[in-house]
Amino acid sequence: MRTPRPHADPRSYVSTGSLPADAPIEDLLRRAHEELRGVEEGELSTVYPALAGADPSHFGLALADVEGATFEAGDSRIPFLIMSVSKPFVLALVCDAIGARAVDDLVGMTATGLPFNSLEPVERSPRGRTNPMVTSGAIATTSLVPGGRCEERWQFIREGLCRFAGRDLSLDTDTVEAVRATNLRHRSLALLLRSRAALRGDPQEAVELYTDQCCLEVTAVDLAVMGATLADGGVNPLTGDQVVCAEAARVALVAMNVAGLYEASGEWMLRVGVPGKSGIGGGITASSPGKGGFGAFSPLLDAQGNSVRAGRAAELLSRELGLDILRSAPAQR
Question: Which domains are seen in the chain, by residue range?
């Protein structure tokens, strides 16, 4: 059993909860998987060969609670590219290292209402600020990673993401090379950010680091554990490791709430009610503070780049397990 941790700020009150003690979580995951595995809506991403060649039948679900229990169904151990799901975790690592205010000052925290890789929000913002969940803001966030040489900064990112997952994560080197050969859009965004003083250091190095973080391989179980780490004030529920401070974890959840599902973020909050983050690799992570984390993988994506099956599973499980942070019941009088 873990030793109780004092809250970072004794003046703050923390709202927590717990998963239903008698809920048949494993059965619920299996039911969700059975009900949704036949859904064939959506398309494979064609951005990179590794994504275009994914098996559309793959579908895995996982849940991790803040006490360290994990539950899974389907293809929950199949590795896939983390892609944009890396964004909130790198954000938390950077906030933990240099402070949330410094990150917000450079990057911003406002939804753009535009596609995730659009240049327009950077151009129309007075200081080029967007939010850490879109590509421009994520590159700006990565530019703040501490360290001297690029290798040292990459070590900071990789070790931090591994600590979030509670295990060593592998880099898909073939996809890294493919992305570097075709990421003209990322380079354009980085140069535009630099021209607006909205990026620190060398733009090319920021793009390289961002590319590498997106090409780590994870599983649905990893994403559930990573989501649970944010849900538990930055503590990994499997290892007991304080990966980031509670405030850094909170900032990551705020960013996920603002734009974790891009233009569909409002619909996600209406249907699921917890901070979430998707990626074109087919993964989704979600965090219910004080309760746990959800991870899912299915490579068939909707028009916004979000996994169709994973999103529907999140809605079902949120309703059945009381994960929704916005739902309440009238007080007994």
Answer: 25-84+218-321 (3.40.710.10), 85-214 (3.40.710.10)
